[in-house]
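To the structural biology subgroup,

Please find below the input and predicted structure for IS5 family transposase, which we are adding to the shared reference set this quarter. The sequence is reproduced verbatim from the submission form. If anyone notices a discrepancy with their own records, reply to this email rather than editing the shared folder directly, so we keep one authoritative version.
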Amino acid sequence: MSDLFWLSDAQMTRLEPYFPKSHGKPRVDDRRVLSGIILINRNGLRWRYAPREYGHHKALYNRWKRWSDKGIFARMMAGLAAGHGEKKTVMIDATYLKAHRTASSSAAKKGGPGRLIGRTKGGMNAKLPAICDSQGRPLNLFVTAGQVSDYVGARALRDSLPDVDWLLGDRGYDADWFREALKDKRIRACISGRKQRKATVKYDKRRYKRRNRIEIMFGRLKDWRRVATRYDRCPKIFLSAVALAATVTFWL
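Predicted structure (tokenized):
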């Protein structure tokens, strides 16, 4: 049995609306190139070690770099996730992603957004805040430096929350302003209270146990080796790797 990965016709049909238009010379076969890009990201290979069945490795890397810079892979995930249909519950959390020395070496260019890599107790890391639905499928996610607090992720994701009844989160999201923001959106918070609180916060412990689905989601994303370990210096390209993993794992 071959270890190669190939996108099916049905999967290509779902992805094609998000492809950029080809100008001038026709692109190399989309199915072959995208299948090779997925295999590289899932298995953590260097581009030069791409199996020959996918064509020349430079064609794979050039497509990956060009489409990542344009945000194509992020738009694929956002577009497919837009049809989630969730009406009841969403979950919010963040996970650390280890940065390889090739991603954290050398200073970022002046005037740029930075690498979005920070030093934590576990070393050099990036952080992935995310929202998922009740089935554990990612609805929205982005990358920050590892030392950034969960509150920053909560502020960034707040406006993208769908119209649902409940939001589940751990004590890292226990802030009065966040609870008020959820109340304004008519979303009930099921968030455990911080130990520093003088008054105990009541929450539905039975419902809270369902929050493990977002942890499972992070685990499945980290099955992709170029997500679990960040090799890319550019945060936009690394976010493309995360978005591609989310798209193939949960939305195709």
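Summary notes: The mean pLDDT is 90. Residues 9-70 form one domain.

Regards,
Lab coordination
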